[in-house]
Design a protein that fits this description.
This protein is about 30% helix and about 25% strand. It is α+β, with helices and mostly antiparallel strands.
């Protein structure tokens, strides 16, 4: 057992033995004089605090842009971290920095370090191109209020044709650092500000949580981080699971895809899309690159949010959740996990080990629709996800209609499902389902939408599903906000 968190910041090896379990990377960096990393929103939205986190995965270096404001220092054990100060110098700028100067990509400069770090990370992404849509996705988590995005995008394109950066010559050095750091040890720290546990394996995790059922489990901290930065909560015992190898796995079998509790959305996106293409597209709009690089699929489930984008999709697909308490394991249908607002079917000390998304039946039709005020990086007002099977005569033999944002939990529209089951999928059946939606939900009015809007949209999404599954236009939201046929 190790009694210190260790990682590299630039070329400096950092060993922290007295770190607060919920100290954010942003606060720690700025206290150390690394003030190029800016504090903007302090909730993972604006990207001004973006840094690069490098890890060794499957013998390859993986470079990720993350929001330092909601990344706890304790989560960086075993990682290599770079800030804007590490990229280049006035005499030898990084290709992205040089391009930003030449393309006039900076005005007030506050957001510029975050943009540059996201751009530097994108250059390291496998399959990165100068395609406008891919660049927009890569930069969707960075906000600029004065320069405008056009010169920044031009700078991104220019940097894609530039030569290597300083890190390309350091691959071997960085690899050796990370190999040395990742010793598989469990980290245990206790101090006046609380206790930190970084389990080295899943059995240690199970033991720690069984003995400390009130501990806060942290995976990506994209939710828990706001408890600290906005809710000002004191977390007395944090257990971070990002280094647990058993929870970092994805396994595809003939039955489905099992995703471990520490697998991020970015890592899982392509694998989920192999089963559910619409879900893969939906994940592209979940948060931003920085958020998806940290947020986990199972964390989005475990926190029990009624507006989480993942749970309705996986409920519609018939997913199974896997939990563990001590040495006892159990599985349950995902929809059964959500009981009421703030209440889930999880016993004290029990934790989510993973989720299994089954292979859809060959004749199944699946769609997922996100309705939000902004295309990128916005919380859903309504999310609808539908799975339907029909026989050769066109009769509906199975249907699952799941919604987020319509109730206190992600929930199936059971009366609408009953109105469809056993009927031919025609306009008469559609109208019956639309009418039943009003009986299934009594949504609230909040800053995202009124109850009337939510009820109307929920019914209209069924109409959209009908059009797309009966030979009508395949409508998808374009970046302009209008409808595009694809």
């Amino acid at each position: 057992m190790r009694q210190a968190v260790q990682f590299y910041l630039g070329d400096d090896r950092i060993v922290l033995g007295g770190v607060s379990p919920a100290l954010t990377l942003l606060d720690w960096l700025r206290e150390r004089g690394r003030t190029g990393t800016k504090e903007g929103c302090n909730e993972g939205d604006c990207g001004a605090c973006t840094v690069l986190v490098v890890r060794l995965e499957h013998d390859q270096l993986v470079w990720r842009a993350v929001n330092a404001c909601i990344q706890f220092v304790s989560m960086l054990d075993g990682a290599q971290v770079y800030t804007i100060e590490d990229l280049g110098t006035p005499d030898a700028p990084h290709p992205v920095q040089a391009a930003m100067v030449e393309q006039h990509g900076s005005q007030c400069g506050f957001c510029t370090p975050g943009f540059v770090m996201s751009m530097a990370a994108y250059r390291k992404t496998q399959g990165a191109t100068d395609d406008d849509a891919k660049i927009d996705d890569a930069l969707a988590g960075n906000l600029c209020r004065c320069t405008g995005y056009a010169p920044i995008v031009r700078a991104m394109k220019q940097s894609m044709t530039a030569g290597p950066d300083r890190f390309d010559a350091q691959v071997q050095t960085i690899t050796e650092r990370l190999v040395a750091l990742n010793d598989g040890e469990t980290v245990q720290l206790s101090g006046t500000e609380g206790t930190l546990t970084v389990p080295g394996n899943v059995d240690v995790l199970a033991e720690v949580l069984e003995q400390n059922p009130d501990a806060t489990i942290v995976a990506g901290a994209t939710d828990v981080g706001l408890w600290v930065t906005k809710g000002m909560r004191q977390l007395r015992h944090v257990v971070t699971i990002g280094r647990v190898p058993e929870l970092r796995r994805m396994e595809r079998t003939a039955e489905g895809l099992t995703i471990g509790a520490a697998v991020t959305y970015q890592e899982a996106q392509s694998r989920i899309a192999e089963l559910l293409p619409d879900a893969g597209e939906m994940i592209r709009r979940l948060g931003s690159t920085q958020v998806r690089n940290s947020a986990t699929v199972c964390g989005n489930i475990a926190n029990g949010s009624p507006i989480g984008d993942g749970p309705p999709m996986f409920i519609a697909a018939g997913a199974t959740l896997h939990l563990r308490l001590g040495n006892e394991r159990r599985s349950l249908p995902l929809e059964s996990y959500f009981i009421a607002y703030g209440k889930q079917d999880r016993r004290p000390g029990e934790f989510v080990e993973g989720v299994t998304i089954p292979v859809p039946p060959a004749n199944a039709q699946f769609r997922a629709y996100k309705i939000s005020k902004r295309f990128d990086q916005d919380i859903s007002a309504v999310l609808g996800a539908f799975m339907m099977e029909r026989n050769a005569e066109g009769v509906i033999t199975s249907v699952r209609l799941a919604y987020g944002g319509m109730a206190a939990i992600p929930k199936r529209a059971e009366q609408a499902e009953a109105a469809l089951l056993g009927r031919v999928w025609d306009e008469e059946a559609l109208e019956a389902a639309r009418a039943a939606i009003a009986k299934d939900f009594t949504p609230l009015t909040d800053m995202r939408a009124t109850d009337w809007y939510r009820r109307t949209v929920a019914a209209n999404l069924l109409t959209r599903f009908f059009e797309e599954t009966t030979g009508g236009p395949q409508a998808r939201l374009a970046r302009t906000g209008g409808l595009a046929h694809v």
